[in-house]
Amino acid sequence: MVPCRISKICGQASVDAIRLSTGLALAGEVSALCSAPANKEAFPLAGHKFEGQTEIFAHLTNTTAFHTIMIGGPLRVSLVSAHCSLLEAVARVKQPRIERIMGELHTSLRQEFGLPNPRIGVAGLNPPAGENGVLGMGEIEHIKPALETCRRKGMNVSDPLAADSLFYAAEQGAYDAILAMYHDQGTIPLKRFGYVTYAVGLPIIRTTAGHGTAFDIAWQGIAKPELLSRAVRQAEELAMTKARLQHG
Fold it and tell me: What are φ and ψ of residue 130, in 5° steps?
């Protein structure tokens, strides 16, 4: 094994660690998990065909509906699509998917973050939110119908809004969380804070730092541990809040 190089051995070690920790969490021997960054390219070298760590946790817990909430600074952000091409991201903006992810986000904000009536701001797909169909029909054909269904279920959600204004409003406290339509729309505003990710929908609590393995600076003594430390603290806070709400 050579440091800072992708290898089959390290890919298998990552999967083994995930498998072991998941077993402990499912058995109730630990209250929450925080996983360190793992290199996605190492998984297939070890014979595992997963997009990332979250997909492995989902597979091991038999979870089919899940996504991640990104937490940084004053923002909590969920994505309708994550690691895929922009063309695929647009194709995934469909009413059933929006309703599912919004439902998962709303439930998590109540059960793990302790917000009884969370306010969720919704980013439009097109700039600026399609201008009533002039700049695109995604908002009219898919996003608005999904939001109407969510409101009927008692969720406090906004109309599709221009993303630039929405994120500013959320930073000022107007919303408890944001649902963004695709990866860069949601992650770019978070990058200046650094962010932690929390896997929603799993039967266990699992967080991780919102960055990769950084092989370019590994073993040089200059990597900063703050974000992973925040991920550990976030896992603890989520576990404590969930336990408090469950036991009154």
Answer: 85, -15
